């Protein structure tokens, strides 16, 4: 990312990692931090799984993971990979044959721990399939499923055990001359996950896949992920992420983007800055923001929009946003464009008006971008 010379306190210095490809999405190096999610449909149901992949891609998912526990799901994977608008990661545990089938079916990446596949011959076969089909691999260490010998050595899941597990898996891939891998060291405990990620970030230059596993439902999981992933990203650690929620994958993608947007690491779509509202509000801020979020979901161009209840904070916030609306008296408010007062607008049809302004602004920006290219 480019550094901010005017506001150096906003700079995040990303850890230098090497870059790999997950299909056509670069992960690591100076590539944008990608957002992933995972389907929760029956993977052998092509239509249901594809629908979920497409819905996730529509809200910005760069990569989607699909679990492939059996042969019928690796068979279905072929069509899913062919029709998917984004690269598909096949999630495999233990069964090396599923990994080979998934690579043959067109998976862009295999999530598999080489240490769990079995003997040397099986590892070699999986690595060969990955190389032959241009797949990368994600080594996914999880505090909840650490190898027995590491639990015996360390007594309980701890950052050192997770890093050692990851390094053991890395060594196996490197011994097979395979370097197209990324790593995750997930835990449901934010302290454990954050410490393990810091450890692995120092131990290797491989790209890092961030996640707080089993984070919880929409609200609690969002908070936990924002704390865990947010801190790591702020430290410059992380090249791709998945927010794990017991919720619709679409929500995971939205939360992932919001975390990145809050840190200025990615911009996508409309970023609404709104006040919590109080007795001073000149219009119903909460209902307005809820409706605007829904009606502006289709906008992909990064645009900032401030929706503020009154003049206490409205003009100040509008200064820093592309479009702003500040509530006033007598059923109307002020519209700001690029920080400057532009025109008055009646509250009654303010939402339609703002949607129109944002769509127009988005079209202008896209046209300028196309002309520049
Ligand atoms: S900006 Fe105005 S309406 Fe919004 S919370 Fe502050 S004082 Fe209340």
TrEMBL record:
Coiled coil (UniProt feature): none
Keyword set, alphabetical order: 4Fe-4S, Iron, Iron-sulfur, Isoprene biosynthesis, Metal-binding, Oxidoreductase
Gene Ontology MF annotations: 4-hydroxy-3-methylbut-2-en-1-yl diphosphate synthase activity (ferredoxin)
Keyword Cell division applies: no
Annotated pathway: Isoprenoid biosynthesis; isopentenyl diphosphate biosynthesis via DXP pathway; isopentenyl diphosphate from 1-deoxy-D-xylulose 5-phosphate: step 5/6
Record: residues binding [4Fe-4S] cluster: 275, 278, 310, 317
Domain IspG C-terminal: 271-360
Note on cofactor: Binds 1 [4Fe-4S] cluster.
Residue intervals of the IspG TIM-barrel domain: 17-256
Top EC group: oxidoreductase
Keyword Flavoprotein belongs to the record: no
UniProt-listed Enzyme Commission number(s): 1.17.7.3
Similarity remark: Belongs to the IspG family.
HAMAP family: IspG
Record-given protein name: 4-hydroxy-3-methylbut-2-en-1-yl diphosphate synthase (flavodoxin)
Biological classification of the source: Bacteria, Pseudomonadati, Pseudomonadota, Alphaproteobacteria, Rhodobacterales
